[in-house]
Amino acid sequence: MAQTAAMYDKLLTTVSTGYFPTGFIATKIFPSLPVKQSTGALAGYGSDHIRIENTLMGGRGKAPRYESMTRKISYYSVERHGIEGLVTQDDYDNYDLPYDAEKDETIGITTVLTIGKEKAMADQLMNKDVVKSNVTLSGENQLSNYEKSDPLAVVRQAQNTIYDKCGLAPNKVIMNWKVYNALSYHPKILGNLGYSQARAGTLTTEELAKAMKIETLLIGNTSYNAAAYGKNAENMTSIWSDDILFYYAPDIAGKYQMSFGYYIIKSGETPLQVYTENEFNPPGAKKILVTDNYGISLTNINAAFLVKAAI
Questions:
Q1: Nearest-10 crossing angle of helices 151-166, 205-212
Q2: Tens-place pLDDT, residues 15-33
Q3: What's domain 26-46+69-81+103-270+297-308's architecture?
Q4: What stretch of H or E contains 72?
Q5: Which residues fall within 8 angstroms of residue 92, CB to CB, at 6 or more apart?
Q6: Domain spans, the chain
Q7: Global model pTM greater than 0.85
Q8: pLDDT tens across 103-125, in order?
Q9: b (16+ CB within 10 A) / e for 299-311
Q10: 246, 160 in Cβ contact below 8 A?
Q11: What are phi and psi for residue 244, nearest 5 degrees?
């Protein structure tokens, strides 16, 4: 006799499914700068100390006087972000393993908060109205066209532009997973590294960084659901667009340094803070609040170059 209905057993206690992104890069892009106040100023210098001036000492050995250090200030603001969830007594009672009502809710709202930060960072940095030095590729020049495009020429354009504008070549690059995947197959990059077509698609981030002459390659591989809340359909969309950002930034914040920007955090605070509180409406419930306080300060836009529509 044919089976006409599925047989259901209790939930497996060691397996659960779902997309929980882990490849966030927002906090890795810039050096972290701890501050005490939520608003304040960042000290900076002009470029008068790198001008060519007359240094010949005149009569009686008197040196010409010159004001070499001009000082300028940029401002920062640490913004407070937070989102709250609720776990009811029914949730505690009705969700069996592998579900964990309180842990699930904490992970869920933490993910919402973290994805929001990642998206805000991507929207700002991949914006040609923000990064004034940029180029938009089209047609056969896009790097997914393996016969006509020249990715290393695009790299040189970015390097030379940043070097001409700020005196340093870029040392970091951001791209999404699709761009990274496309470049992993590009014959001109493979040839630059001395590889044959047999290595196509297997290039590591270190190898691609070597071909591009940069120190750090960050791959933004996180997606989000762009469908409106409450809709059953999902619209999975990459947070990082199909662009490439070249920029210069040190690994650690310090004095007398150049940086495209800084990631501002409050001194003594952990990146994500979780608070719980008993809730009496409905009885037996618990509120969970996750907060994140941070700011982004772009201190030198000349230290960046954006390639739009790379693929």
A1: 60
A2: 656 777 788 999 999 999 9
A3: Alpha-Beta Complex (3.90)
A4: strand 71-77
A5: 101, 102, 284
A6: 26-46+69-81+103-270+297-308
A7: yes
A8: 999 999 999 999 999 999 999 99
A9: bbebbbbbbbbbb
A10: no
A11: -130, 130
